[in-house]
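Late entry, written up from scratch paper. The run itself happened at the end of the previous shift, but nothing got recorded in the book at the time, so transcribing now.
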Amino acid sequence: MAVCPKCRKRLAKRSCPALGAAVCQLCCGTLREREIACPPACPHLSAHKPYQEKRVVERVAPPSGPGRWGGGKDVLSDERLAWLAVHIEAALIGPASADRAFSDMDALMAVDYARKRTEKGPSRLIIPGEALKPVDAAGEAVLQAIETCRYEGSAFLASGTGSYTKEERLACLERVAWGIRGFLDRRTGGRAYLRDLAGRFSQSGPPEGDKKLVVLT
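Output as recorded:
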């Protein structure tokens, strides 16, 4: 039996359709949907999904509290950080509009995907044979939104303050995730959050210029 091509330590006992080869069980579990672009039809992925969703839903907030930022304040009380939170939510409008099956749980998983990618940082390693398409299209849209977002709320913006730090991005992602959890009904795969989101954006329009938007509460 061959050695796992990922860790090069353990025996490769589990077939991986994304790599077109076998990997060890540990690498399958730890790299799934992170460094390995798992196709939806993978039996190991489908078996893991309910457990992963449960972990995301029950994820413990940071010690300072859900959506908290310096001094214990809510992220949304800071206009600059609220601007980023709005762009995170805006990235979910497209997937929700294009696919009626896209649920609040899918939105939460997309935000969590972007959080994990942000925590990990950009990968410099290219592994031949791995799928190049995004693992989670909605998650990639959220990730793109936070990477390109620049605060434009003030004409007197100090140099260098328009972009966001990694810590600020993570705080805003966690705040949005916390807001989605408040709407979540895992039994029905509902869209209560997405309906609320559509209503707020229909009032304010897309984020552009210095337009003030209605953010989640």
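The radius of gyration is 19 Å.
(Scratch paper discarded after transcription.)
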